[in-house]
Amino acid sequence: MSLELGKARLSALVVVTTLAGYLMAARPVPGWGHLAATMLGTALCAFGANGFNQVLERDRDALMVRTRERPLPAGRVGVRAAAVWSGAVVLAGVGLLLALVNAAAAALALGTVLLYVLVYTPLKPRSTLNTLAGAICGAIPPLIGWSAVTGGVQAGGWWLALLLFVWQVPHFLSLAWLYRDDYRRAGFKMLPLQDPRGDRTFRFLMLYAWVLLPLGLLATFMGLTGAVFAVGSLLLGGAWLWLGMRCYRDRSSLNARRVFLGSVVYLPLVLGLMVADRAPPRAERAAGADVAIVAAQPGSV
User: Fold this and answer.
1) How far apart are CA 184 and CA 244, in angstroms?
2) Nearby residues of 236 by Cβ (< 8 Å), 6 or more positions away
3) Whole-structure pTM over 0.70, yes or no?
4) Using CA atoms, how far apart are residues 194 and 71, in angstroms rounded to an integer?
5) Does 264 fall in a domain?
6) What are the beta bridge partners of residue 278?
7) How many domains in the chain?
8) CA angle 283, 284, 289 (to 5 degrees)
9) 128: CATH
10) Which of 205, 206, 231, 207 is nearest to 217 (CA)?
11) For 42-88, how does the pLDDT look when each residue is reduced to its tens digit (9 = 90+)?
12) Which residues contact residue 192 at a Cβ distance below 8 angstroms, ignoring those fewer than 6 apart?
């Protein structure tokens, strides 16, 4: 029941992106206990935020085929019990981060919960801007991981957050196109409902997919990753963009599903490649350069 109320798969994505931010900032990992506390605290906050989301959307969830079997609309758990559980889980997550990680990570986790529950969730039945609000929520977890290591957020963390933000827009839009009838029944304001032909929906989908290409190269220019990531991100982004182009020409449910599944494949592959090809810290690179210069001098040992 707790896994359903906390949307375990969505929470797992939050943990994975937090881990990516942590590993990109860590040289070396501060300690496995520190890493575990960061992941567990973030997971608890994600579970609680998703629980509050289901409490607030329980009536609308009951109208959607995709969500009507969730615990609240199906009557397997009461509203008060779900709200108390969600609050307790969030408090436990924030408290764990504050006690065992640092204040920056705890503040970012709490801010994500508040943004998700108080901005994104109420915005869904009011404005199509909810997609961008949701993308902001999803962009913060890697910052939690980054700040857990550094105590703050530097340029590399902001780049990673931007990558997550850009990725989420075509991910959300393809899902919204697939389930547009469901969203209409529930009264959610999704872009495909105001765009029956899909012109704007797939124009935005293509635009954001295009942005991923130079964004991947930017990581190498910033010194965050090596050339392997630059090439790999181009190939992965190009493959996903090709799926988007096919869907733009033929807006069938099958092609939209391929774009959505492509987004699910793209993200773990690009994050894994990023971590595998991450560059050493600037201090280590500078030290290596100094050693090379000394070694090249005549008479050096």
Assistant:
1) 23
2) 216, 266, 269, 270, 273
3) yes
4) 30
5) yes
6) 225
7) 2
8) 100
9) 1.10.357.140
10) 231
11) 999 999 999 999 999 999 999 999 999 999 999 999 999 999 999 99
12) 173, 176, 177, 180, 183, 198, 201
- Which residues share a beta bridge with 225? 278
Region of residue 107 (phi > 0: left; psi between -120 and 50: alpha; otherwise: beta): alpha
3-state secondary structure 63-99: CCCCCCCCCCCCCCCCHHHHHHHHHHHHHHHHHHHHH
- Cβ neighbours of residue 211 under 8 Å, at least 6 residues apart? 166
* Closest of 14, 291, 59, 40 to residue 168, by C-alpha: 14
Q: How far is CA 277 from CA 12, 194, 226, in A?
A: 23, 42, 6
Q: 24 φ, ψ to 5°?
A: -70, -30
Task: State pLDDT tens for residues 93-134.
Answer: 999 999 999 999 999 999 999 999 999 999 999 999 999 999
Distance CA 24, CA 276 (A): 10
Q: Which CATH number belongs to the domain containing residue 240 in this structure?
A: 1.20.120
Question: Does residue 301 lie within any of the structural domains?
Answer: no
SS3 for 298?
A: coil
State the Cα–Cα distance between residues 98 and 105, nearest whole angstrom.
Answer: 7
Q: Cis (ω within 30 of 0) for the bond into 28?
A: yes
| Cα–Cα distance for residue pair 146/172, rounded to 1 Å | 25
* Structural domain range at position 105: 1-153
Q: What is the DSSP letter of 281?
A: P
Distance from the first to the final alpha carbon of the chain: 66
